[in-house]
Amino acid sequence: MTDQEMPTLHDIIAARPHVYRYLKPTPLYRYFGLSELIGANVWVKHENHLPGGAYKVRGAVNLVAHLSRKERDSGLFTASTGNHGQGIAFAARAHGLRATIAVPEGASPGKVAGMRGLGAEVVFRGPNYESALEWAIGAAAAQGGRLVDATEDLIIHGVGTYGLEIIEELPEVDAIIVPVASGSGAWATGIVAKTINPRIQLIAVQSAQAPAMQRTWVAGKPVTVAAHTVADALGVSVPFEKTRPFLRKYLDDFVLVDDGAIEAAVLLLLEHTHNLAEGAGAAPLAAALKLRDRLAGKNVVLVMTGGNLSIDRLRKLLAQPVSVAATQG
Amino acid sequence: MTDQEMPTLHDIIAARPHVYRYLKPTPLYRYFGLSELIGANVWVKHENHLPGGAYKVRGAVNLVAHLSRKERDSGLFTASTGNHGQGIAFAARAHGLRATIAVPEGASPGKVAGMRGLGAEVVFRGPNYESALEWAIGAAAAQGGRLVDATEDLIIHGVGTYGLEIIEELPEVDAIIVPVASGSGAWATGIVAKTINPRIQLIAVQSAQAPAMQRTWVAGKPVTVAAHTVADALGVSVPFEKTRPFLRKYLDDFVLVDDGAIEAAVLLLLEHTHNLAEGAGAAPLAAALKLRDRLAGKNVVLVMTGGNLSIDRLRKLLAQPVSVAATQG
To answer: Is residue A267 less than 8 Å (CB to CB) from chain B?
Structure first.
């Protein structure tokens, strides 16, 4: 496959009418407290304000808009830890299609309830994303359904619209920090940022307790590592093959942060923005705190990719003895 | 003063270019879990997604856009429990003006930090909103500044834009539920709703622990009642005179809910929407739960006016023995 066939800025621009038929652009807010904390000018891109509380829905509504009549009639099959599934469920409902979503057995109850509330059929299949994916591939083949891959081109085109919103609203952005699971968000943001201004730094982050994609990026070849992170949306152990060359091409850096740093970032975001971030959505702040020296004085955008933290986890976080004041000190 | 001189739908439409110069329309999302809970079709209007985390900023940016050169140069003075002040601070910063905001001594630290982060001068004056207001009036007079009243016409014009967004996005809305402190939001929403479709029910809610505005509405004359609510934005003890006749004119009902019901609603909103609501922003859900029978099957919009709950209060709420599951049963 040549570069010409791969998603381009043009594809992302073309996705906009389909995305904005159902979704509004999300806010990009500057936070003065976070800026002081990091020693940079810090904005948060609020993808947590989208329906389903995560950026994934952008890709889903674009994909569904492009399906053939046959694909629409056959129903959608996909696998997800939750946010991609909520996006597909939202898009399927908007277009009146059936959607079947396979999730790992430990999937977030809130995300599962969100998918079912939107009318999707949710099935629990195996211990992790990979086992759920295997089932979805088989079920789509057996039932003649349309398998939706979380990293297929039409998804990337839709997801890229958030990067475009960032650069249009803040052309002077120096660095964008995104969490990585499949790599769809980082890939799409890379297309936009590097095509428009190659000097924009694109930094990815993953949990040190689920580092498969980061290790793969460093090694330049697939590295499988067991995932044990508290950030359910980052629970990837087998690296996604399709996004690999593009993460190599577009990322300026790819850092790991410990789950503890991610949880501290959830609390800091709650304190400073009054937004609930899930682990993946808070990871960019943890990365920015780690990279303080390099980011000093720059215009930095943290992508809050999702807000679907469970109330149980929030309760546990708030009950921990370490106060937010202490982590701020 | 005649009705002709009072804010109209035309004024609110005219405020839109000024409001949308700095702000984006907020999302109106349907929540299936909340809908089941109430037995109605329930949408939440996410005013908590605005800068400063509350609807007040809509009025502030419209007001500041209309100031004379003399008023701009003289600086702004106002009193606030927090959200109005954050709105004024945002608008003043956007236009490069000085703003001095008097707050009660117990004002929310997060809201105070928000105002200061935006460059406003914050002074603590007395035990409540009324004492802060008294100081602001005197200081504006002594220093030749522009006093900003939280219920003046230019504020109402800007605030009304959220009501217009609701009706444009959901023309089939049957009922809108708004919390009341000064009454600016309820007044502005009344202008929009009742001018466009008088059959839209407009329901106001206040804490039973701070019922001055509700008692005033029922009695048809000012009733002062001490305020002891956990919802700081609802802490009004002396009723606002200017909004009184319009609340009489526009409200179909005005209900009281206990602080305990408000706090349960904060947790329900966290569970179902993954948004953090402050007490005022959660009060409409508490009201809807109280009015279940009357709302059955209707299209109901809950206005989440603000999201500035302190992390300390959230921690206390989550540590309480009553589980969310129990309140849902």
So the answer is: yes
User: Exposed (0-12), middle (13-18) or buried (19+): which is A138, by Cβ within 10 Å?
Assistant: middle
CA distances in angstroms from B7 to B62, B152, B177, B282, listed in the order given = 13, 10, 21, 27
What amino acid is encoded at B325 in this protein? A
Arithmetic mean of pLDDT over chain B: 94
Instruction: Mutation target for B interface from A28, A263, A274: give the one with most B CBs within 10 A.
Output: A274
- Each residue's pLDDT tens digit, A145-199: 999 999 999 999 999 999 999 999 999 999 999 999 999 999 999 999 999 999 9
User: Å from A321 to nearest chain B CA?
Assistant: 12
Nearest to A319 among B276, B309, B319 (CB): B319
CA separation for the pair A88, B7 (Å, rounded): 44
The ipTM value here is 0.90
Are B24 and A24 inside 8 Å of each other by CB? Answer: yes
User: Is the Cβ–Cβ distance between A234 and A206 less than 8 Å?
Assistant: yes
Q: In what order do the strands lie in the sheet with B146-147?
A: B121-124, B99-103, B76-79, B146-147
A-B CB pairs within 8 A amount to 72
B8-22 residue pLDDT tens: 999 999 999 999 999
> Three-class SS of residue A250?
helix
By C-alpha distance, the chain A residue nearest B33 is A117
Q: Which domains does chain A have, with CATH numbers?
A: 3-55+154-328 (3.40.50.1100), 56-150 (3.40.50.1100)
B93 in reach of chain A (CB within 8 A): no
**Chain A within 8 Å of B271 (Cβ-Cβ)?**
yes
